[in-house]
TrEMBL record:
UniProt cross-references to InterPro entries, sorted A to Z: FPG_cat, FPG_N, H2TH_FPG, Ribosomal_uS13-like_H2TH, Znf_DNA_glyclase/AP_lyase, Znf_FPG/IleRS
PANTHER family: ENDONUCLEASE 8, ENDONUCLEASE 8 1
Origin species: Conyzicola lurida
Molecular-function GO terms, alphabetical: class I DNA-(apurinic or apyrimidinic site) endonuclease activity; damaged DNA binding; oxidized pyrimidine nucleobase lesion DNA N-glycosylase activity; zinc ion binding
Superkingdom assignment: Bacteria
Record flagged with keyword Magnesium: no
Protein name per Swiss-Prot or TrEMBL: DNA-(apurinic or apyrimidinic site) lyase
């Protein structure tokens, strides 16, 4: 499932290429025909993300709420000629380091040198596709909703949620979500997270995945945050010291910023330039414990454990996190 950084990056593409333009909305698949007709012909006036959910505003009165879930993805096509995040603008989407250096890959040219209209897929991974011969391209597959601006089109497939809401309905949805470091005031967000987590008897490994407690954290960031804090994922939230919870919030703020800037869930610090470039190119080289079941801990050498918690795979070191 796309985690918070991916949804923020997708939303920034809408802010860059769609906000301020009149949008032709349709449902090639047919399942969202009614909702598409409500926003068809309206101007997109805002685009924002809270955790794993995104909200697109039309003419200051209607909102399109989208939750990608496990299978959803946006495909952009047309004038996608620059990354919407400043730190990555000099290189390929999701494959630049924090200094903007491009990782060589003949299959994915830099967005800054595309020239012709291109396709761009955005979900957990971002992939730049072939040049377009015509614009807009024909919808491919089960496109739930198509949003067409003057020179850019976005196709949504497979979302968990896709609905048109009134402003008060949007506020009701957001009110139920935990704080997002890129949305909430830093001090207020930290206080909301800590105050909620410290009251729970639930294991901290489950609390971090609870979108009502904190927004945007998924399976990867959960495992990495806990390891970076050397925190046992089974420890109840009420037994985690307040200062440790505050440090978790600070680290989530940091990692989310890195994810938005690079397009990658880069969770290892202190790497050499060569190791950093390798980590951006290969997921196995950018995480401490995630997806490393049975492999030696990078710190102590103990095999990393994987267990299922609430239907999701949880990775941790049984030595460094106890």
């Amino acid at each position: 499932m796309p985690e918070g950084h991916s949804v923020h990056r997708i939303t920034r593409q809408f802010a860059l290429h769609f906000v301020g333009k009149t949008i032709a909305a349709s449902s090639p698949q047919g399942r969202f025909a009614g909702g598409a007709s409500e926003i068809d012909g309206l101007e997109m006036t805002d685009a924002k993300a809270v955790g794993k959910q995104m909200f697109l505003e039309f003419d200051h009165r209607l909102w399109l709420r989208v939750h990608l879930g496990m299978y959803g993805a946006w495909d952009f096509a047309g004038n996608i000629t620059a990354d919407a995040t400043t730190a990555s603008a000099g290189g390929r989407m999701g494959q630049t380091n924090q200094r903007g250096t491009v990782v060589p890959d003949d299959n994915e040219p830099s967005l800054s040198s595309i020239g012709a209209p291109r396709r761009l897929r955005m979900a957990e991974q971002e992939r730049l596709g072939e040049a377009l011969d015509t614009f807009p391209p024909e919808p491919i597959g089960a496109v739930r909703v198509r949003l067409l601006a003057s020179d850019t089109v976005a196709d949504l497939r497979g979302p968990t949620a896709c609905e048109v809401l009134q402003p008060e309905e949007v506020q009701a949805v957001i009110a139920k979500l935990g704080p997002d470091p890129l949305v909430d005031d830093p001090d207020e967000g930290r206080a909301r997270f800590v105050d909620a987590a410290i009251k729970k008897a639930t294991p901290i490994g489950l609390i971090l995945m609870d979108q009502n407690v904190v927004s945007g954290i998924g399976n990867v960031y959960r495992a990495e945050l806990l390891f970076r804090a050397r925190l046992d994922p089974h420890k109840p939230g009420k037994l985690v010291p307040r200062e440790t919870l505050e440090e978790l919030w600070a680290d989530w703020t940091y990692l989310l910023g890195v994810g938005v800037s690079t397009g990658q869930m880069m969770t290892m610090d202190g790497l050499s330039h060569e190791d950093y470039v390798n980590a951006l190119a290969r997921r196995d080289d950018r995480h401490w414990v995630y997806h490393r079941a049975g492999k030696p801990c990078r710190v102590c050498g103990t095999p990393i454990v994987m267990e299922v918690a609430a239907g999701r795979k949880l990775y941790f070191c049984p030595v460094d996190q106890t």
